[in-house]
Amino acid sequence: MKATIFDIQRNSFVDGPGIRTTVFFKGCNLKCAWCHNPESQNTKSELMVYSNKCIQCGKCTEKCPYNLKNCDLCGKCALFCLQEARMICGKNYTVDEVVSEVLKDKAYYEGSGGGVTLSGGECMLQIDFATELLKECKKNNIHTAIDTAGNVPFEYFMRVLPYTDLFLYDIKCFDKSLHKKYTGVSNELILGNLKRLLSLKSNIWIRIPIIPSVNDNAGELLKIKDFIYKNGEVEKIELLPYHKIGEHKYEALGMELHSFDLLSKERLLELQNIFNI
């Protein structure tokens, strides 16, 4: 069994408690206009080309069996690019290969209360692999977390629930039309799954990306707050301000970029007060 992974990030402090290793799965069934990991959206491996890094040395053309035409993602152009202007994003891993990587930092997990987080993209789109990976982590007494947008059958949650210590659950927008406009999908399944997960008293952190001109208003956030507390309790609510860190990736992938304004610190504090953060 294999899964397509585009990054295994060690020493993470933002994907759950403690020091963590985050495994980023490729493939997502949302297309958020503000996505900072656009390389996560496609389920297959991709070639990323950073033209601003290229020095026109010609090594990529020289090494490519097809003269940079009809790319089969063999990776030779990236291997010989000294400027890292070309990169293959997405690699097939076995469960054992991923476990081997995450075990390297087990001492850090134990010392900090950290562990392993499965993220993406949407990690649960590769549910068989995700379930087996979580099982192996628990066999090794590693704390596990799933970062999800929730747009999957609830059956998938039930499959991973016995091996998952924490869910990092994203809520983009509460308004249905707003959610559809900016992510490409309805939020009915997402909110329905969250309601059912809350009823099971699962450990949940809610994460809300705050996007200026989209959901950075009290009305939208109060609806999210009311929904959560009407249906259960969560351990934590995080507001994640929009940033532009991933914008350069869009050109590298030949994708259209949708840019938004940055959120001021003062405005973020105002919105955090809604949740008493």
Present the secondary structure layout.
Layout (H helix, E strand, L loop, with lengths): L1 E11 L7 E6 L20 E4 L9 H5 L12 H4 L6 E4 L1 E4 H8 L3 H7 L2 E5 L7 H13 L3 E6 L5 H7 L5 E5 L5 H8 L4 H12 L4 E7 L7 H14 L4 E6 L6 H6 L11 H10 L3
Helix pairs in contact: 3-5
Structural class based on helices, strands and sheet pairing:
alpha/beta
Order of helices and strands: EEEHHEEHHEHEHEHHEHEHH
What can be said about the biggest beta sheet? 8 strands, mixed
| Uncertain regions spanning at least 5 consecutive residues | none
Count of beta strands: 10
Q: Describe the strand arrangement of the main beta sheet, using strand numbers.
A: 5-1-2-6-7-8-9-10
Report the C-alpha radius of gyration, rounded: 20 Å
Alpha plus pi helix count: 11
Name the CATH class of the largest domain.
Answer: Alpha Beta
Architecture (CATH level 2) name of the largest domain: Alpha-Beta Barrel
Query: What is the end-to-end distance?
Result: 42 Å
Beta content = 15-25%
